[in-house]
């Protein structure tokens, strides 16, 4: 996916150094979500665009956007060696939290967002 951006993004993504660093990190990175690890995920902001309420079905649907942040220690590098202080990744390339509804309409957990 990032290959489509190689030329157009070069100027603000750190150029060839960023691509080499991204390849280096990807060669050692496992974004598996099945690991039994605790991770702290912060909710930075929530924007609700629209809410639907169905009183008959006793159902509420909220449409909006959540901004989450976390520290992934597996994505780290020496800034002096690579001369880069930040790097962009697509969500599928790194670990991302899986949101689970804890009070679902039916018994069991429902996944709200999945990779």
From TrEMBL:
UniProt-recorded Gene Ontology molecular function terms: extracellular ligand-gated monoatomic ion channel activity
Highest taxon of source: Eukaryota
Entries under InterPro entries matching the protein: Neur_chan_lig-bd_sf
GO cellular component, as recorded: membrane
Protein known as: Neurotransmitter-gated ion-channel ligand-binding domain-containing protein
Lineage: Eukaryota, Metazoa, Ecdysozoa, Nematoda, Chromadorea
